[in-house]
Design a protein that fits this description.
The chain is globular, with a radius of gyration of 15 Å. The protein has a single domain (2-171), classed as Aminopeptidase. It starts with a strand and ends with a strand. It has 4 helices and 7 strands. Strands 1-2-3-4-5-7-6 form a 7-stranded mixed beta sheet, sandwiched between helices. The longest helix is centred in the N-terminal third of the chain and has 17 residues, at 10-26. The chain has helices at residues 10-26, 41-50, 107-121, 136-144, and strands at residues 2-4, 53-58, 61-69, 90-98, 126-132, 148-157, 161-171. Helices cover 30% and strands 32% of the residues. With 172 residues, it is an alpha+beta fold.
Length: 172
């Protein structure tokens, strides 16, 4: 099941983030995240307080987390989006991650489908997202489920790393 996160989920969300960092220390690296900087439990807490944090859970164990809101990073302005939309019509997927022990089970696809349905119910007409250019699984996943590549550009993410992110979009 995928549901809105609760305060009691924050430790489990932190464990998912830490598991991703632990897995990446062994290679291969699919995110450009930095332990202690992003993502953190504090980032999750902010999304929780905004009412935009969701978790995937089975039998009381969290398997994934995502922040779904309308916040387009400033760098999105440099992307030649092909699906026109007013700012309030755009849903944005941020920090979607699945616990590494649960990868390969189609859970990311389930999470994206949930985000699409949730965004539709909020009156959104398009979903946008970004992912690190080196994130091979994500860069394969999004086109396979109907997302169009809109472009890539350099982001100065959270003021700590310059990176090229690929941006994708899908009409709802």
């Amino acid at each position: 099941m995928i549901r809105k996160a609760a305060a009691a989920d924050l430790p489990g969300i932190g464990e998912i983030y830490e598991a991703v960092f632990d897995r990446e220390e062994q290679g291969p690296v699919y995110t450009n995240w930095l332990r202690g900087s992003y993502p953190t439990t504090e980032d999750a807490r902010k999304a929780l307080e905004a009412g935009t944090l969701y978790v995937g859970e089975e039998d009381g164990v969290l398997w994934g987390v995502v922040n779904l809101n309308g916040e387009q990073l400033p760098e999105y302005g440099r992307i030649p989006w092909s699906i026109p939309a007013e700012a309030e019509e755009v849903g944005v997927i941020h920090t979607l991650c699945v616990h590494p022990a649960q990868s390969g089970k189609g859970l990311a696809k389930r999470m994206v489908a949930f985000c699409e349905e949730t965004a539709r119910s909020q009156g959104k007409t398009v979903i946008r997202l970004d992912t690190w250019e080196g994130n091979a699984p994500a860069n394969r996943l999004y086109p396979s489920i109907g997302y169009g590549f809109a472009g890539g550009t350099e982001f100065f993410f959270h003021g700590y790393i310059r990176e090229t992110l690929n941006c994708y979009e899908k009409k709802l």
